[in-house]
Design goal:
The chain is mainly β. It has strands spanning 2-7, 10-13, 18-26, 31-40, 43-52, 57-59, 67-72, 75-80, 89-97, 102-104, 108-113.
Length: 114
């Protein structure tokens, strides 16, 4: 079983920055990607950014140039700069195995005030 724990969410003013962290533990044998998704009460969960073991990254168009994903062993980070009110959401850490099994963290709230 894989366990993901996020931290770093909070309340920030528009234009500010936050850094999310996610620690993966447990039976981690075949990680394909790690990443971050977000969800609001009115929108489906959407990919924010992901990173492969080789360091290749993928970003949602809405966050390109503002967010940076990075990874160090079983940790994944999301540096969020120039935050906008529309970035307000619950952010979930994701780990996808080579067999396409998804594991999720419990979520961390990010609120950006205008």
């Amino acid at each position: 079983q894989v366990h993901l724990v996020e931290s770093g969410g909070g309340l920030v003013q528009a234009g500010g920055s936050l850094r999310l962290s996610c620690a993966a533990s447990g039976s981690i044998f075949s990680i394909n990607t790690m990443g971050w998704y977000r969800q609001t009460p009115t929108k489906q969960r959407e990919l924010v950014a992901s990173i492969t073991g080789g360091g290749s990254t993928n970003y949602a168009d809405s966050v390109k140039g503002r967010f940076t994903i990075s990874r160090d062993k079983n940790m994944v980070y999301l540096q969020m700069n120039s935050l906008k009110p529309e970035d307000t959401a619950v952010y979930y850490c994701n780990l996808r195995t080579l067999r396409s099994t998804d594991y999720w963290g419990q979520g961390t709230q990010v609120t950006v005030s205008s």
